[in-house]
Every structure is written in structure tokens, then in C-alpha cells.
Amino acid sequence: MSLFRTILFNRWSIRLLVVLGLLGGIWLFRQPLLRAAGGFLVKEDPLAHADVVYVLGGAPIERAEAGARLVLAGYAPEAVFTGEPPNELLQSFGIDSAEAGLGMHVAQLHGLPLERMRALRVGTSTAEEAVAVRTDAERLGADTILVVTTDFHTRRVSRVFHKVFRGSGTIVLVRATPSHHYSAARWWETEEGMIMVNNEYTKLMYYAFKH
To answer: Cα separation of 61 and 59, whole Å?
Structure first.
């Protein structure tokens, strides 16, 4: 074997060993890396008293329950539930099936009186909800609002809401509630968790360029 071939072989051997070492390291530390990937998506603000709690549409069971708890604990006088897309099956039975209506129903089941909640039947996306919430908060003259969403959505929701509320003078505090279907610590163990993390990173990139 010529000297040139020997040097070339040695270089490729070193590169192969480096790649194999990196792959081995990733496999060995896969769980901490996966937990970090899920944990990055969670960005929650400190809890404080607010003028109103806004519960975003999309997951009415866990989000509405968390919103009801905040109001019942005295952190705000009322909860406002957002979300527009109707469930056609429920609608056919005469049930209020907009995301906002479903959220109110869940909150009522958890003890929140109807007079301490209302629906804001607007929003098919986080950006639309943020604009609608700002309009509503300005109408109320709110100084501080609590925005409730699922934990994996908090980083994206925080970015969108703080951008929309820029210059408004209203303090936006984003609060996280765990999903009933996946865990931020072990999201890769369920299909729902894997889909959620993939979707969230895709949406983070989309909102970074689009909004």
C-alpha cells in the first residue's frame, strides 16, 4: 500500500471512529437528550394575581380544569375561554361544541360558576387567539393576564403573545398545565408525545419566520 493510500485510509478510519463515537454517545445519553428536547418547549412564568385568566382552546379537559382552579384559588375574578372550531358530531346533538364552549363545560364540572366565566369564540390558531385576547384585555383595561395552555405549548405561546402584546402595557403570564396523554419527562414513550414534540418544533420554526 502506497504512503498516500495509507494516509487516506487512516483519515477515513479516524472519521469513522469519530462518527461511531458520536452515535454511541447519543445512544448512551439518549434519555437525557430527549428529556432536554421536551423540556426546552416548556417555558412557564411565575404565578401572580391577574385581572383575568384566558384559557386557550385545543385541549379543553386539562386546560379548562387548570383555568378553573386558578379562578377558584383567587388568582383572577373570571376565566375567558377561547377557540372557534366546532365539533360537528356534538353540534348535531345541539351541544355547544366550539372550543370555548367545551372549555366552559369542563370548568363548570370542576366547580367554576357560570357567572365567573365567558366564551371568546375566536381563534383557529395561537396567533388569532393572541390578537383576540389583546382586544378583549384592552376592552377590560387589564393590567395583568394569565394565559393557560398545555406545558409543551408554553414556549411558542409565550413568544406569540408577548409579540402581539408588545407596547400594550399589559403583563402576560403564561401558565402550563400537564397533558393527560403524555409527559414532558418521558414524551417519547407514547405516540401522542412524539407527535406533539414534532409538531411543536415545526410550529416554532413556522412562527419564527411567519410571525
So the answer is: 6
- Answer whether 51's CB lies under 8 Å from 77's CB: yes
Q: DSSP strand E in 35-133: where?
A: 52-55, 79-82, 117-120
Backbone angles phi, psi at 177, to 5 degrees: -130, 135
For residues 115 and 150, membership in a common domain is answered with yes
Amino acid letter, 70 = L
Query: Average pLDDT over the chain, rounded to whole?
Result: 84
Please give the grid coordinates belonging to residue 130. 393572541
Cell readout for 34 is 430527549
Same domain, yes or no: 49 and 25: no
Region of residue 141 (left: phi > 0; alpha: psi -120 to 50; beta: else): left
- Note the pLDDT tens digit of each residue in 149-191: 999 999 999 999 999 999 999 999 999 998 877 777 788 788 8
Residue 80 belongs to domain with CATH number: 3.40.50.620
Residue 183: helix, strand or coil by DSSP? coil
Q: Of 147, 174, 169, which Cα lies nearest the Cα of 45?
A: 174
Q: What is the pTM of this model?
A: 0.81
Q: What number of CA atoms fall less than 13 Å from residue 30's CA on the CB side?
A: 8
For residue 10, what are the domain limits?
Answer: 3-30
Name the domain count of the chain.
2
Residues of the chain with pLDDT under 50: 8, 26-27
Alpha carbon distance 170, 153 (integer Å):
21
* Domain identity same for 17 and 47: no
